[in-house]
Amino acid sequence: MFRAFNTIFKREFRSYFYTPLAYVFIGMFVFFMGLVFNSFLQSYLMYTQQSQFAAAPQVTIDRLAEAFYSQTHVLLLIMIPFFTMRLFTTESSQNTFSLLMTSPVKTTSLVMAKFWGAASIVLIMLAMTLVFPTFLFIFSQEGAQSAGPDLGIVISTYIGLVLVSLTYVAIGTFWSSVTESQLIALVFTFFSIFGLTLISIWSESTTGITQAVIKQLSVSEQFISFSKGSLEFKSVTMFLSYIVFFLFLTNRSIESRAWRS
Amino acid sequence: MIEVKNLVKKYGDFSAVRGLTFDVPKGQILGLLGPNGAGKSTTMKILSAFMPATSGEVKVAGFDVFEEPMEVKKRVGYLPEQPPLYLEMRVREYIDYVADLKLVPKEKKKERIDYVIEHCGLKENSTRIIATLSKGYRQRVGIAQALVHDPEVVILDEPTVGLDPVQIVEIRNLIKGLAGTHTVILSTHILPEVVMTCQKVILINHGKIMVNDTVENLTAGGGGDSLEKAYLKIVAGDTVTHAPAGL
Fold it and tell me: What ipTM was assigned to the predicted interfaces of this complex?
């Protein structure tokens, strides 16, 4: 079974590089991240200068980094649907789905290979952003004035980013399995992801248990707790549940295809 | 090698296949003949464990396609009507990928890939990107894909469609060469093709078997005439008002 996973995963990963898609998107991502990091540095400088003179509220580098990482989150949210939209849709349009279905490949291996194919590209993109905290660590040592970022917070933020990304990839994998149109997969993935992020706004108008439930389900709400440095078991569980849930749905949707045709 | 009993397939209210029963012994080449929409492709999809039947029993290479689809899939090479090609891949890379999917043992892989590339006439094009190939060459890649794991049963849905006359002869010879060691089912609506490549013919129309006989018996009357007559008689029973051209 591992061979099937390996074979499909490798092809999936390479397929991003057959077309300029991966190059363009990774390039754009890194470029925008650079811009965001630049503005982060500038505002950090501004705050530290202010705090030298006035009794301005002390802003730590970690508080500012929260804003930086929430922008990373938004960029991922926009880009991931483009990486997942073609996962299963192209198999249908090229009729290669019939090749996969008549090969001794378990549906689970197929779904996992597709999921990790897209996820690995996203994780590579995330790994590239590690250059920014590394930069902060290196240069903070010299200036005694400004302490560097808290390593614990950086780690918990990255765990959060990885979990959020995998959740979005799982959602995108699911939508690409239910339609033959890349555009429909893209649009539905966008809406689902935005929905999961935006329900936290809805929670403001509710109270009590409803609010608690919505807050627990909201991806952005959970992500914020990661970027504050708290690595909570219930948040990790929630992300893992989302991933398992959507991959399970994908599995079902692929298996039902044969019966629907 | 292949046993089919009372095979029925319904798409909603429409019955594509209505109670097919036939069997193919090991090493034989069977031609599934019939007009468009007769149920040929549907039958082949069920035999290759791609699609479940509504009812009936199908055994391929000794395994039930519903009970043990994985075992069937290991032993079947299937070429659908539209070859399942990743257009952005190179020919050899693609066949290598299929060999891995079909679990060809690592030590045999290179030999098998070389074999199908040579026998399907893809040697000069093995490094080309599939998207740049003509329809005939894509069809050959499709056939190579179905044979790479040396399957016991080969199911080919209209294998010679889109090929030029020279290629047709080559592919026919390739298929003929499989007889004896492989069990082959191929579908077509070209009559001479059946006479030239197959040992047995099943003529189906509206999902039912109309004729099930050996090519020898059917052509005994003289050079495929009786087969043609049988075919035209069956097709003429439909709404067809004129004899189909090119038969």
Answer: 0.86
